[in-house]
Design goal:
Elements (H helix, E strand, L loop, with lengths): L2 H10 L15 H10 L5 E6 L7 H10 L3 E6 L16 H18 L2 E4 L11 H8 L1 H15 L3 E4 L10 H16 L20 E6 L13 E4 L3 E2 L4 E2 H9 L17 E9 L21 H12 L10 H13 L4 H18 L1 E7 L3 E3 L2 E11 L6 E6 L2 E6 L6 E9 L34 E8 L2 E8 L1 E6 L3 E6 L1 E3 L2 E5 L3 E4 L4 E10 L7 E5 L6 E4 L2 E4 L7 E10 L6 E7 L2 E2 L4 E5 L2 E6 L4 E6 L8 E5 L6 H7 L3 E4 L7 H4 L4 E4 L3 H4 L3 H13 L3 E5 L17 E2 L11 E3 L30 E2 L9 E3 L11 E6 L2 E6 L3 H4 L5 H11 L4
Parallel strand pairs: 1-2, 1-4, 2-3, 4-5, 10-18, 11-20, 22-32, 33-34, 33-35, 35-36, 36-42
Antiparallel strand pairs: 5-9, 6-9, 7-8, 10-12, 12-15, 13-14, 13-16, 16-17, 18-19, 21-23, 23-27, 24-26, 24-28, 25-27, 28-29, 28-32, 30-31, 37-39, 38-40, 41-42
Helix pairs in contact: 2-11, 3-8, 4-8, 5-6, 5-7, 6-7, 9-10, 10-11
The chain binds zinc ion.
């Protein structure tokens, strides 16, 4: 698909990202609801920083009670949060949360957009946030979206100061205000004005909240009751909101529904003040469009003559309405309302359209056959198909009988999410202007179906899907993936290699189509001190079989710095396939460039064998295996005291105390093991929903304190503490090169029996001693730590690895 085509899609924002799912048909009540929306020409934009910041009840109310176009701009994809359902972190968590947000919007009726800002983790100030985000670039995208969506009202979740909490929250409010002003200013981002006009939203409001410190100060806050019940949908907005919010499963945000009067408050920020309603002083009727009065009369007739038992009787009136709108001069509302009428024509005809492929995957550069099935399920409807992906067809569609049409698309490019095509910076994805705002790729493989219903030409563009039946889940729909012809995977992502030693890594190549054949592989040049063999080789797949492996040997001959080894295939970066599969969202794939981190390390490691009890999920076990430690994953329900004796240490995965209800019984066994000479190391937990309140051998409390600056100064309170000296001498250098943060949910009110050898703080804060607690317990020891080893170890941070080994070592 050419770039020109994509531009057309963008100019009209027509590609709808509902969700990979069966085509949704509307009930007569839902059709009525959409007919009512035809009369409303208003638009609202909710503006915040993360998936889950948005007020889903307000979005549901705006979309379905007020029936205005309602969008949520989440500046980030929530990449830096904690994952409660699996081990994905960073951009992969962002992929999960993107789909969760799309699912939430499908329920509450809003539209979803993002900027290129990367959620780099918790930030305490907007200053720090803007340094990472490249403020002007994020502002440019927000301005583009405002000019594109033309919201009458912009609503922020947060205030622009400390009351917003998270630095990203404060930054979102500051950006909303600046974008509100800049969108109306022709001197700001003038390059956008070729495609969009300047836009002056009527007002900017802050949606205050009773939680945290966000009540606001102004006494004349605008108050609106949003607790209504919608009889056509059979739900109150509080019920819809709970369903929508409960989609944030990776954050553990299952929510209860609420009913009855519910007052939402808004504080004035900029633009014209409102005294009674969000849309005060804004004409959100057809009067805002020249020649619109006659159209409203037609809508009134359409609504009064609608027959619930035969929606198709409304097709002539809809066709008439479509033609009248078509006569209007071009405008935002003309395009928008024409599209709504077309959606209603499809709904009233009882049309179901689905485009599917027979394989979940296609290989880039091949042509992919697909099938479009159409059925007209309401009686007496005259509908025909004129073309499929540009091929003329001209056939009448039969009544209540599936008509099937075949075509092919050329799968040119891999379906890499557009924000992952180029490597991201610390604070921002690198994206093209043509992709601004989109939640997913606008150029996913699409079927373009030209139809006629009641003599109205309608073009439907839908993402081509793979459909299959799962015995438990039923019919499952997924997006078609286009993958590289040959992909690869490494047995390890990072090698920590002491000087003079060598390690091997296995690279396995997968041929994704039988016709992809011999290729040459080149490894990037290593820096001084690394010796790598082989550096190039030819790939040839066995006659039967689509995979082949090769061993690479890396020797540290005196390296003193981290090296990232890249791989090329026929001159192009070699890619892998990472699949993310959960039942509540469509399966997703992305294609990381294959890279191996080589890290010189000086380490003494006496730890041979450990047991690991998984908590919410982390990648520490794999990192320990890379050090040569044997790791057994232990089932908490089957923990057995005598079986633990074989381990040098037993490690509790992150949030174990939050996620595992069986943890209480297990702790007794673990502490007996420690008393008898074992080491128990517990990683961070959060204070809310602890399964066991008194979980530690000696008391301490869990706070929300964290050190978010990954380079924050670390002070050694007791520099001769054995944990900092044996078997590895820990120095300040060991706290260099950490990623994202130092640690989180530090301990407080710590019983004096604990040693707390470290102290640290973010800039301008007082030092905190709760990151590392060590208690000598009988013949063994208990360690509690909020240091984010779960982030450092998987990426091979040498200092964190050395300290972790010390903590697992019995003798200190
Ligand atoms: Zn947030």
């Amino acid at each position: 698909m050419g770039r020109q085509y994509i531009r057309i899609l963008i100019a009209s924002f027509f590609v709808k990202f509902s969700f990979a799912q069966a085509p949704q048909s509307l009930s007569s009540a839902e059709i009525r609801q959409k007919m009512e929306r035809l009369s409303v020409l208003g638009s609202a934009l909710y503006f915040a920083a993360h998936p889950d910041d948005e007020n889903t009840k307000l979005i549901a109310y705006l979309a379905s009670e007020r029936k205005v176009r309602t969008a949520y701009l989440s500046l980030t994809r929530g990449d830096g949060g904690q994952n409660l359902i699996g081990t994905e972190q960073g951009i992969e968590l962002g992929l999960i949360r993107t789909q969760e947000l799309l699912q939430a919007r499908r329920i509450d009726g809003g539209e979803q957009y993002f900027s290129s800002a990367y959620d780099f983790g918790f930030s305490k100030t907007y200053d720090e946030t803007f340094r990472f985000w490249q403020k002007n670039e994020v502002l440019r995208e927000a301005v583009w979206l405002i000019r594109k969506l033309q919201p009458d009202v912009i609503i922020t979740r947060f205030p622009p100061d400390e009351r917003g909490g998270h630095g990203h929250h404060q930054a979102s409010a500051i950006l909303a205000h600046e974008a509100f002003l800049a969108a109306a200013d022709p001197n700001q981002f003038p390059e956008q004005l070729q495609e969009v006009g300047v836009w002056q939203a009527k007002r900017l409001l802050w949606n205050t909240a009773s939680f945290m410190r966000m009540q606001g100060e102004s006494k004349d806050q605008l108050k609106i009751d949003i607790g209504n019940f919608n009889p056509l949908l059979g739900q109150s907005y509080g019920e819809i909101a709970a369903l929508s919010r409960s989609q944030h499963k990776s954050q553990g945000f299952g929510s209860a529904s609420s009913n009855g009067r519910f007052i939402e408050s808004f504080e004035y920020v900029a633009g014209e003040k409102a005294s009674n309603d969000l849309f005060d002083g804004i004409d959100i009727t057809w009067n805002r469009v020249e020649g619109g009065a006659a159209i409203q009369q037609n809508i009134d007739m359409l609504r009064s003559s609608f027959d619930d038992s035969a929606p198709q009787h409304s097709i002539p009136a809809l066709a008439k309405l479509w033609k009248e709108i078509q006569q209007l001069p071009n405008s935002y509302w003309k395009m928008r309302k024409k599209q709504e009428v077309e959606d209603l024509l499809i709904a009233c005809a009882g049309l179901r359209i689905e485009s599917t492929v027979s394989n979940a995957r296609a290989v880039a550069g091949t042509s992919v056959p697909f099938k479009t099935e159409i059925i007209v399920r309401n009686r007496g409807v005259k509908a025909s198909i004129s073309a499929l992906n540009g091929q003329n067809i001209d056939e009448k569609l039969p009544e209540n009988e599936v008509a099937s049409f075949s075509s092919t698309i050329l799968a040119n490019d891999i379906t890499q999410p557009y924000w992952l095509v180029k490597p991201h910076t610390l604070g921002r994805f690198v994206v093209e202007a043509t992709d601004y705002g989109y939640p997913m790729n606008p150029d996913l493989p699409l079927a373009k179906i030209d139809l006629q219903i009641g003599e109205v030409p309608i073009t439907v563009q839908q993402a081509i899907q793979y459909r299959f039946v799962d015995p438990v889940r039923g019919e499952v729909h997924e997006y078609l993936e286009v993958v590289p012809p040959i992909t690869a995977s490494l047995s390890q992502q990072a090698l920590l290699i002491p000087q003079g030693e060598k390690r091997t890594v296995e690279i396995t190549f997968q041929r994704n189509s039988a016709s992809s054949n011999a290729s040459s592989i080149q490894l990037g040049s290593p820096s001084k001190g690394w010796d790598i063999t082989p550096r190039t080789f030819e790939l040839s797949f066995p006659e039967r079989g689509n995979s082949v492996s090769k061993t690479i040997t890396v020797t540290n001959t005196g390296a003193n710095a981290l090296q990232t080894l890249t791989f090329n295939i026929d001159g192009q970066p070699l890619k892998g396939i990472r699949e993310i599969a959960y039942d509540h969202i469509p399966r997703q794939a992305w294609f990381p460039s294959i890279a191996l981190k080589l890290q010189p390390i000086t380490i003494v490691n006496p730890v041979k064998r450990v047991g690991y009890i998984m908590g919410a999920g982390d990648l520490v076990p794999e990192a320990l295996r890379n050090l040569g430690i044997h790791v057994d994953l232990l089932d908490i329900a089957k923990l057995n005291g005598s079986a633990l004796e074989q381990y040098d240490a037993v490690i509790c995965g992150v949030r174990l105390l939050n996620v595992n209800p069986q943890v209480g019984k297990a702790l007794d066994i673990l502490y007996r093991y420690a008393n008898n000479g074992g080491v128990v190391l517990m990683q961070y937990n959060v204070n809310s929903r602890l399964q066991e309140d008194e979980f530690a051998p000696k008391p301490f409390a869990l706070s929300r304190a964290r050190v978010t600056e990954e380079d924050a100064e670390v002070r050694f309170v007791e520099s001769d503490d054995p944990a900092l000296n044996y078997p590895n001498k820990i120095t300040k250098q060991d706290f260099e090169g950490w990623v994202q943060e130092r640690g989180l949910y530090f301990a407080e009110n710590i019983d004096p029996s604990y040693r707390t050898p470290l102290e640290m703080a973010d800039k301008n804060e007082s030092p905190h001693k709760g990151s590392l607690l060590i208690y000598k317990m009988g013949k063994g020891k208990f360690v509690y730590t909020g240091l984010s080893f779960f982030r450092q170890l998987p990426v091979g941070v040498p200092g964190a690895t050395r300290l972790f080994v010390n903590l697992l070592t019995k003798e200190n």
